[in-house]
Amino acid sequence: MKFDLDQAIEIATEAIRAEGYEQASVKALSERLGISRSSFYNTFGSREELFAEVIRRYAPSAPDAPLYGRVEGRILPLIEGVARNICRVRSRDKQGHGCIIVNSICELCPSPAGPAQMLADLATASVERIEELLATAQTQNEIPPEANLRALALALQNMMIGLNVLSKVVRSEEELWLLAETTLKGLGLYPTPGNRPSV
Fold this sequence. Notes:
Blueprint: H1 5-19, H2 26-33, H3 37-44, H4 47-58, H5 76-91, H6 100-108, H7 116-139, H8 149-166, H9 173-186
């Protein structure tokens, strides 16, 4: 039987989502993949390199992925859509595994070892990207000129991480959306006629 690299990475992804990075040891992953440890190292280089590839492949399919691509048009409806998508996707995750990136941040950070720095860099880049989007929203008169963009970006990142964690115990999409909607409204980031420019 031919070794299927894509399938192996999918199996590793599910193992890490379900059990965490630390439990997904080289030995455990090798056994799950039906390969020897030497084959594991020959194929993936290291567990850290495999993890980086898992994250690289996962990120474009994450519920918040639309924030990181090319964005045209209004920003607040995009943010609302991402929040709704997180609520939808996480409430339908029958095993309640959640986001592999958020789970791994909770498990591994802060630490100078392993993939923790990569995860910290991802979180920092995410806040910076959200801040860029909010600056665009500000120039489009979706949010007031005096708004503290850094504080809003941190608050949005906190909300998204919180939804991913809370969804492990609050399984209702409606309840998760209630949290998200309340947060967006409280931050003045909910798209309403009052914060959309007149045409």
